[in-house]
Design brief:
alpha/beta, 227 residues, 4-stranded antiparallel beta sheet, 6-stranded mixed beta sheet
């Protein structure tokens, strides 16, 4: 596949923690509009891949290209690279990581206000539209502790999308959801790809992956074993 066309290109990614080789030469491509599910056992390196792509985890060998923003092995990315990366990729953590002292709306407007320097009116209008599209606009003034797991997750997705990144990464998005909410989330994610967004999710949830992913990639012992 031509990496110039890929939203995400990972080449020979290797990462060690002490004597343990967590990632052993992961190579993969994610194309625009795909919903790719990265599956594997706990501790198999799935979350580490997402953390490496978002520059939260340095790696020992290999190269990551996110829409032209390149991360190299053993190199701390520059401030400019980090800033460019934030525009290209959004990450939704498994436990949401919403700021507890901010309302749902304030969580979503945070980056547009402070990173993109959007006006307050524009940031708020965009945030409300995002919360609306995810079905949680009526909870905009609620604090994270007042939200259900499903609501908190939708707010976290809205926050990750507030900077309009072409690539959205999600770590175990169905972990805290009941079957009805899982189905709802799957349809939401699919609608995002219809709008041209690209998604890479890690999951243990095989039925969910089979139902909603356009492609499943299996990671075992730090390497990709099957697609």
């Amino acid at each position: 596949m031509n990496s110039a066309m890929s939203v995400l290109a990972i080449d020979d990614l290797r990462l060690r923690r002490g004597a343990v080789e967590v990632l052993r030469g992961v190579t993969m491509r994610v194309e625009q509009g795909e919903l790719v599910a990265l599956m594997g056992l706990s501790g198999g390196g799935k979350t580490t891949v997402l953390r490496a792509v978002t520059a939260l985890e340095p790696f020992d060998e290999g190269r990551i290209d996110v829409g032209g923003v390149v991360l190299e092995a053993n190199q701390a990315p520059s401030r400019e690279t980090i800033r460019a990366l934030r525009k290209h990729v959004g990450l939704v953590f498994q436990d949401h990581h919403l700021f507890g002292h901010l309302t749902a709306l304030e969580n979503v407007t945070l980056a547009p206000l402070h990173v993109a320097h959007a006006s307050h009116a524009d940031a708020e209008q965009r945030a409300i539209a995002l919360l609306e599209s995810l079905g949680v606009a009526h909870r905009r003034n609620a604090y994270p502790r007042e939200l259900s797991g499903g609501e908190a997750q939708r707010v976290a997705i809205a926050r990750a999308m507030a900077m309009e990144p072409p690539l959205l990464l999600m770590d175990e998005p169905t972990a805290s959801l009941d079957p009805a909410r899982r189905m709802e989330l799957g349809q939401t994610l699919r609608s995002l790809t219809t709008g041209g967004r690209t998604l890479l999710i890690t999951t243990h949830d095989e039925p969910f992956a089979r139902e909603f992913a356009s492609r499943v990639v299996v990671l075992r012992d730090g390497g990709i074993v099957t697609e």
